[in-house]
Amino acid sequence: MDPEILENYIHAGKIASAVREESKPLIKVGAQLVDIAEKIEAMIREKGAEPAFPVNISLNDIAAHYTPTKNDATTIKADDIVKVDIGVHIDGFVGDTAYTICFNEHFDNLVKASQAALEEAIKFCTPGMHLHELSAAIETTIKSFGFKPIENLTGHGLEQFDLHAEPQIPNIKFSSHYELREDQVIAIEPFATTGAGKIKESEQVMIFRLLEPKPLRNFDARKIISFAEQFNGLPFAERWIENTGLSQFKTRIALRELRERGVIYDYPVLREVEKGLISQFEHTVIIKDQPIVTTL
Length: 296
Prior knowledge:
Layout: H1 3-23, H2 33-46, E1 50-51, E2 56-59, E3 62-64, E4 81-90, E5 93-102, H3 108-122, H4 131-144, E6 148-149, E7 154-159, E8 162-170, E9 185-188, E10 191-193, E11 199-210, H5 219-228, E12 236-237, H6 238-242, H7 248-260, E13 264-272, E14 278-280, E15 283-286, E16 292-293
Helix pairs in contact: 1-2, 3-4
């Protein structure tokens, strides 16, 4: 790996780690999700980096892709299981990390299940290791706590300005001859649930990614395209668009047109199919004989 690229990955990971730890006191009963998200994103920028994606704050049966809107009144309740997924990039090189906090000790083992699975999976992040062994370790660990891994959510490779590069990293046992290669960068994110072990897309969409700019007559749609180009293909939030002065009403009309024209890709909020509670932990790892966990 080029030394400058390695330095950027490590720098992004260190910032992501610092923000993760500094954000934990924000997760408290009564806190409003939009306030938390904006404070975390501000922390990233204050440390000289940029968010690699809008901060995800997912409660209870929501697994991913929930980032609050500007007028989101959602607050944290005493029995909520709160998952915070943070991405940081330096010139497109990403540090991706996540954690879970709950306030009810009844759910402590659910939180421990995904955390322990992550720790176990990192042991397999060496060159030549078969990917299916890493995934099997995740499933075995989560099941040892009495829960299920989410089978249709995966970890993923990371490349410059690409959050979902190869390989996909299932959280369940599977058959594959794929071997991890030295200097690959991967994000491992085990999800444990009390439910069926599957997620489905909901109708809520708060996060988008620019696919291909196209000429459009709608002024607001053109404004969003211009806004989105600054992210070089990384995701952005509806909440961020509203900072440009567009109303939520106009923003949503324009986003609908952009989706229909194939200009943007959307990320629906993902929920457990049986409304099972979910925990999540995540680290970014560079494959080496001694793996480098950039977000540790």
